[in-house]
Amino acid sequence: MKSITIKGSERESVGKVSTKALRNAGLVPCVLYGGNQAVHFSAEVIAFKNLVYTPNAHTVVIELGNGKTFNAVLQDIQVHPVSDKILHIDFFQIHEDKEITIEVPVKIIGNSKGVMAGGDLRMNNRKLKVKALPKNLPDYVEADITPLDMGNKLYVTKVPTPNFKIMHPENTVICQVKISRAAMKAAQEAAKAAKAPAKGKKK
């Protein structure tokens, strides 16, 4: 999985007053969990652009001004309900010998027979939770829709999972091919035409 670096500064004070002052200064208060103790730090809002405002999944290298470096993943993010401004971010420290769970996007490949016949591809899950060692975390889950005909569904059990596990029930649907209105109308018209008597023939 691709990684991005976030440079920040460790926080000495974590009260409401200092947190508000950080936000007013254009900084985002953050906490890193998963180690011996929680690490409180802050970083500029722009540092999170490629982490938060993207459909892709990343691991994170947190570099603090005191020389401390941590490998982590985004755990939780709080945003303002009106302005969408980032208010707070929680990270979880990762260790090379411990599996972690993270949400990754689904990448559709192939050409569905059902779609080519006029069906509509509907995405039930654009992201899936996977579990693996940090070195085996995938950038995405690859879903091949080639076998799907109209009315077919693609389940999580049908996608390859080398070196990682999908943390969803076996009956979880990734996507499906629905019969489109146009295809349904064409089928209905074809059925009517088949039932109608041929011209020139008596009933």
Automatic annotation (TrEMBL):
SUPFAM superfamilies: Ribosomal protein L25-like (SSF50715). Pfam families: Ribosomal_L25p, Ribosomal_TL5_C. Residues 99-180 form the Large ribosomal subunit protein bL25 beta domain. One of its GO terms (cellular component) is ribosome. Keywords: Ribonucleoprotein, Ribosomal protein, RNA-binding, rRNA-binding. Residues 6-91 form the Large ribosomal subunit protein bL25 L25 domain. InterPro entries: Rbsml_bL25/Gln-tRNA_synth_N, Ribosomal_bL25/Gln-tRNA_synth, Ribosomal_bL25_b-dom, Ribosomal_bL25_C, Ribosomal_bL25_long, Ribosomal_L25_dom, Ribosomal_uL5_bac-type. Part of the 50S ribosomal subunit; part of the 5S rRNA/L5/L18/L25 subcomplex. Contacts the 5S rRNA. Binds to the 5S rRNA independently of L5 and L18. Belongs to the bacterial ribosomal protein bL25 family. CTC subfamily. This is one of the proteins that binds to the 5S RNA in the ribosome where it forms part of the central protuberance. This is Large ribosomal subunit protein bL25. The lineage of its organism: Bacteria, Pseudomonadati, Bacteroidota, Flavobacteriia, Flavobacteriales.
